[in-house]
Description:
By secondary structure, the protein is of the alpha+beta class. Helix content is 50%, strand content 18%. It has a seven-stranded mixed sheet with strand order 14-26-25-24-15-22-23, with helices on both faces. Strands 6-5-7-13-8-11 form a six-stranded antiparallel sheet, with no helix packed on it. A six-stranded antiparallel sheet has the order 16-21-20-19-18-17. About 1% of the residues have low confidence. The protein binds adenosine-5'-triphosphate, copper (I) ion and magnesium ion (MG). The site of copper (I) ion has 4 residues, from loops. May play a role in the osmotic adaptation.
Amino acid sequence: MTHQTLKLAGMSCAGCADSIERIIKSIPGVIRCQVNFGMEQVDVDYDPKRTDLNTIQAKVRDAGFQATPITEINLESRPEKELLTKLSIAIVISIILFIGSLPMMTGLSLSFIPHWLHDPLLQLTLATPVQFWCGQSFYKNAWKAFKNRTATMDTLVVLGTSAAYFYSLFLTFGSDFIEKQGFNSHVYYEASAIVITLILLGRFLEKRARKETAAAIKQLMGLQAKTARVIREEQTLDIPIEEVKVGDIILVRPGEKIPVDGIIIQGSSSIDESMVTGESLPVRKTVNQQVIGATINKTGSLQMQALRVGKDTVLAQIVRLVQTAQASKAPIQRLVDRVTAYFVPVVMIIAVITFLFWILRTGNLTLALITMVEVLIIACPCALGLATPTSIMVGTGQGAKQGILIKNAESLELAQGITTIVLDKTGTLTQGKPTVTDFLTREGVGDGRELSLLQLVVSVENHSEHPLGEAIVKYGRLNAIKTLEVTEFDSITGSGVQGKVGSDLVQIGTQQWLESQGIETKVLKKVAHDWEWQKKTVAWIAVNGHLEGLIAISDVLKPFSSSVVAKLKKIGLEVMMMTGDNLETAEAIASELGIRRFFAALRPQEKAEKIEYLQKKGKIVAMVGDGINDAIALAQADLGIAIGTGTDVAIAASDITLISGDLQGIVTAIELSRATMANIKENLFFAFIYNLIAIPIAAGILYPFLLNPIIAGAAMALSSLSVVTNALRLRRVHPRVGG
Ligand SMILES: Nc1ncnc2c1ncn2[C@@H]1O[C@H](COP(=O)(O)OP(=O)(O)OP(=O)(O)O)[C@@H](O)[C@H]1O
Ligand SMILES: [Cu+]
Ligand SMILES: [Mg+2]
């Protein structure tokens, strides 16, 4: 499967986005296609054996749009200059036309307005370029839609303003005829010109605002360093970031940005990773630790080796993730789409009925025409099309700024509805950087076997990815233990690890597991219990099926664990804990955090089963976890939240990732979701209520009070603008637990 992002040109409203999506999806071989109206781009997945980029581009071109591939991240937006020129000219002409028609509109004789301004021929000369040059894009788009056998908001604008324009044109040259019929012979050039101007103005402002919503991504990308100082063939050179290759040795001085992702090979420093992880405290890093491109090296001088460059860097991946999330459709949007699809044709029918009704009832052609034009203009559903996507864009962008990656709009919509949140213990509530506190052999202190047993244990744990394993290896290093060769290593997720050192079978893991292997564990039970009550995790050691010792490992809680649990309860969620660790340790930790319900000694599959059990009881469950042992449960949960410092498996199985592992992100994500959904509902309410009220008025139910078409145009431009502005308010959501 090939993935490609294309930049789109020529879209004027959400309706165009829909038709492009439909066209691309209809090409055989296209697997997935998603248009992002806000970013003006489309993501396509296709089978390269069945179709290719040229075919896709040609199809899009046939429909009247342009699509060009984006290879590197590139956000240059289409020049707005042309739109601005057209808008300025339209404004000037509209003002002149407006002044000229004031006496007629108000019925007053305003002597300061020269009479020639009211001349229909002059008005025609002024109105024509506005209609066909400034308004050109409406005609083009309406034609495009017509060819695709759909109707969009452009269709409505074209029908409405053309009706006003051609009616006036007819009057200009045939007013005698009209007057003989007893009709009023006022021309409506100014109405059509002003409506076009207002809609252009609305588009211009909307474009501006939409550009602002892409700000989060732009900000992320602007973070990238421009150059890097590399050492090649013993020479130090400054080269552009694009030319850095994997494996290059790079020098980073204090205060400089880390140019690409890499590993420190010399020096140590504290590094500000807040731009990527949202974590505000600088982190101390030294040799062999990874650094992320775009983060800031604060104090020390570093030499690093490039590991990932270009589009493989963490930053580029984050940008891509955020872009896809912003383009994705929330379930609520699908409903809106269905409604909008029927909206335009329905409006056209209402317009025709309005026309027929008034002409038959009053015989007044002007009245019938004006009401029809109003219905066409005022009912334009573009605010409806903007309501959901703009909020989603701002919401996901805002999350990214705070170190919360939301996989798609659906996850964002889901987060607000959860009732229960289940937290994993090790690595989620605790730091996941445990240290060994006690080590005991079967015979107790001084049996002379301590070091040789520790050597066996450390050798096996050296192969484990588990934080407990890492802690034991570190402990071995402190005791100057040399590791031995291990064969037949096996990791039983959720239970422990085993391997052969020479001919000895070494097993390290839970008591439960060793018992299930037929190993007698009674002798050390008392010591183990004491340790567990001190919140320590106990690993049991057996060699050749015989219990030989115990290791106690303790892990401290993350600084915000308690306050996050409290806050989650306060916003009305049921909080539970779930762990693979034993019951006593779990109980001790849970009571410290004030969590009443918890499940302990769970194997990975059982974690998922517990979640399923909660779901069966009608709860909507979010699960937060970091490890391989959490992956199934994360996928089972309604909303999976992964700790970014955890394993890749967990991140892949989740819907939301907290990049820095800061638990406050859970609260932020939920509040952001609630705010976004509320915002979408406000937007939809505004958009619908406006149409519901405006259409009947435009159709003339309040007759003899009639709207002027100009007011209709202004109202419609304002309604989309207010939707976009409302969405931008989401940028003010910054909930934080610690202040
Ligand atoms: N590499 C290992 N070395 C020693 N013991 C292990 C190892 N891996 C797992 N265990 C044992 O299995 C138990 C369960 O492990 P699991 O990975 O499922 O959960 P956990 O990391 O302790 O806790 P949580 O589920 O809260 O993240 C551990 O508490 C430990 O006793
Ligand atoms: Cu519109
Ligand atoms: Mg864990």
